[in-house]
Amino acid sequence: MEGCNLFAVTTPMQTLGLMHKDLFPQAQELGIKTASYMNIVFNHSRISDADKTFLKNGVKWLNEEAVKMYKKEYVKLSALQRQKVLASVTQTEWGNSFVYDVMNYMFEAMLGDSVYGGNNHEAGWKWLQFEGGKPRPKQAYM
Amino acid sequence: MVDICIIGSGAGGSPIAYELANAGFSVVVLEKGEDYTESDFTKDEIGVTRRDMFTPPLSEQKHIINEYKADGTFTRYDGEKSGWNFWNGSMVGGSSNLMSGYFHRLKPNDFKLKSVYGKIKDANVVDWPISYEDLEPYYDKVEKVVGVSGKIVKHKHLEPRSSTDLPYPELQTNGVTQWFDAACKVLGYESIPTPRAILSQNALGRNACYYSNFCGSYGCASGAKGSGRAALLQKCSAKIITDAFVYKLESTDKKVTRAYYYTKRGIRHSIQAKIFVVAAQAIETSRLLLNSKNKYFPQGLANSSTEVGKNLIFSAGGSGSGRFVFEKLTPQQQKELMEVGVFFNRSLQDWYAYEKNDKEYKGGTIDFLFEHQNIISRVMREVYDENGNLMWGDALAKKIKKRLTTSRVLTFEVFNDWLPTDKCFVGVDAKAKDKYGVPVGVINLYGHPHDLEVGEYLAKKSVEVLQKLGCEEIDYSISSAPPPNLVAGGCRFGNDAKISVLDKNCKAHDLENLYVSDASFMPTGGSVPYTWTIYANAFRIADVIKAQLA
To answer: Residue B527 belongs to what domain range?
Structure first.
């Protein structure tokens, strides 16, 4: 899966933020903001460049699939069309890995300590009747 | 010049520091990682378990891994590219800070595996040069000095003990342990309270366990866990130099004279000592000796036998699980099941030795515990449906909610001998170097088929218990995948200098003042986690060094 003709039409953050909503709207319903956590991911010293590049490439490939299916990039599609794009890409090996990775980071934001900016008011923990361990971190590990 | 220089501050190094410093000797401990206090040990799932904050980045320090097949061919993995991580805890106290503290002693037959069970084809099994009786006083000492809690119950494989019971009472347990005990009784199995290196009450100048619910993989914020840091290094005056990566030992033909180390900024330092003790954890200890070759020891320091790095072992076995579901339980049972924080703490050693098809087998230990509470990991285990398709949206939300709030997973871990073989050993790479410019370790891996056979036997016994408990989704995996935190061997001890690196006191045969006090000395590993034995043996070595310096 090489090559991409969709540079600069959408930013990774726009696409990833919308993917979070599409993949797990319950987080938003609980008042949890997960999108900005992706900034931490892309700047984290302990996430490899290869993993970051895979995420960015995944965004490009997802948009390529969106254009192929509906002639528009992902963020401009209807909710139903976006679901169909997600269903389509997860039939491929790269797409499955990419969506899994996106969900992985989304759940980190939703269920990690709120010091990382997500899990607002511990709403993710409360949803699952979970009590975080103590002591809590005073700052995010970057 | 100091009396003793110790390289590595974990379970192998810390008892030496504690004993020698408290006996009035000058002790310096060189530790690659940082120092932490209890207040640093937060329960940050992302930082601790998903970003590996206590181990070096693989982009800076890695291993090369060669995975062998029975026919001698192997697949080479670059640790950085594959993400295969063999680091366990670069910090003062080493990985003992992050252990679960499941403490079992070896048993007398573990010291004479070859004599008792005979030779096994393609395995380098040998008897130890010491007996259980030699180590028993030191196991006892660890119970009292490091602190082991629990309750000794008589069972057919209970090892001889000089103290009747453990010095600290059992930690609090979940009510489900009573279901477990009852199920074992019906099956005719002997359920054992698992001894833990965790204080159940304030003692030894440390606070009791506060049942944080996040024990294994995390540092302990109360000091209850018997890490080398909390139990020993904080109780002695040994000087600890952090950010000190020892890359070479210099020697004459008889003695080690100097240890060279780098700081993370690449500044080079060195230190002289009368006695050097290497305890960098098995793989790194062999790597350091191999990287320290000189004109007297052209094949690596202390390596006239060419045995350094050989017979690397791990803990064989695997793990399995079953799920308790609310639908099968009364409201009271549901409440008991979901009580978190308290421990499960149950083990089975009924098959530490067993007979099958008229043949005697050395078996092992099974520890039972609830699935780790890490919530991100638990949720991520739910994202596939039964057909292996990725789920999302409402269907996933419903599944997660139901699974995490109305069921709970009981897991088991099987520990049996990882037989030493010619295909499992440590080397150093000819090309790959770490950020310090030092050749990285090569980990050659091979699991003997016998290990899998024994592991399967034990796993099937564990499954019987889960079935009797009414668990659903019972499953297990026995494999030759090495657990990186359960590693030993590489500098086996023995009486014959031609086929062993260390003498029975863990002093190098080749040198007058070099000891190895981590798990490298073990020719066979027993069928329990290693930490208690590492501690006990290091206390034994400390007595030898004290006598040498006196």
So the answer is: 2-49+65-480+487-549
Residue B54 included in any domain: no
CATH of the domain at B444: 3.50.50.60
Number of domains in chain B: 1
CB B426 within 8 A of CB B442: yes
SS3 label, residue B361: strand
Per-residue pLDDT of chain B (550 residues; tens, 9 = 90+): 999 999 999 999 999 999 999 999 999 999 999 999 999 999 999 999 999 999 999 999 999 999 999 999 999 999 999 999 999 999 999 999 999 999 999 999 999 999 999 999 999 999 999 999 999 999 999 999 999 999 999 999 999 999 999 999 999 999 999 999 999 999 999 999 999 999 999 999 999 999 999 999 999 999 999 999 999 999 999 999 999 999 999 999 999 999 999 999 999 999 999 999 999 999 999 999 999 999 999 999 999 999 999 999 999 999 999 999 999 999 999 999 999 999 999 999 999 999 999 999 999 999 999 999 999 999 999 999 999 999 999 999 999 999 999 999 999 999 999 999 999 999 999 999 999 999 999 999 999 999 999 999 999 999 999 999 999 999 999 999 999 999 999 999 999 999 999 999 999 999 999 999 999 999 999 999 999 999 999 999 999 999 999 9
DSSP state of B372: P
In B8-45 the beta strands, taken as DSSP E runs, fall at 27-30
Give the whole-angstrom CA distance, residue B328 versus residue B370. 18
CA torsion through residues A80, A81, A85, A88, sign: positive
HEC sequence for A73-96: CHHHCCHHHHHHHHHHHCCCHHHH
Whether the CB-CB separation of B94 and B530 falls below 8 Å is answered with no
Nearest to B382 by CA among B396, B364, B369: B396
**Inter-chain touch A103–B380, beta carbons under 8 Å:** yes
Residues 6 or more apart in contact with residue B118 via CB below 8 angstroms: none
Query: Taking a C-beta distance cutoff of 8 angstroms, is the pair B412, B32 a contact?
Result: no
B327 in a structural domain: yes
> Residue B145 has what DSSP assignment?
I
Residues 202-221 of B with CB under 8 A from A: 212-214, 218, 221
Closest CA to B292 of B277, B279, B302, B281: B302
Sign of the alpha-carbon dihedral angle for A127, A129, A131, A132 = negative
- ipTM score above 0.90: yes
Q: Is B400 in Cβ contact with A128 (below 8 Å)?
A: yes
Residue B481 tokens, joined = 């995948």
Burial class of residue B81 (count of CB atoms within 10 Å of its CB; 0-12, 13-18, 19+): exposed
* Partner-chain contact A46 B51, CB within 8 Å: yes
Q: With the C-alpha atoms ordered B387, B392, B395, B401, is the resulting torsion angle positive or negative?
A: positive
Yes or no, beta carbons of B405 and A128 under 8 Å apart:
yes
Q: Is B57 on the interface with A (CB under 8 A)?
A: yes
Q: What is the DSSP string of B167-186?
A: SBPPPPB-THHHHHHHHHHH
Which helix H or strand E contains B433, and what residues bound it? strand B425-433
Of B264, B221, B294, which Cα lies nearest the Cα of B90? B264
B339, part of any domain:
yes
**CA distance to partner chain B, nearest, from residue A33 (Å):** 16
Q: Which two tokens stand for residue B6?
A: 């110790």
The answer to whether residue B57 is domain-embedded is no
E-state strands within B162-238: 191-193
Structural tokens at position B289: 């000796």
* Chain A contact present for B385, CB below 8 A: no
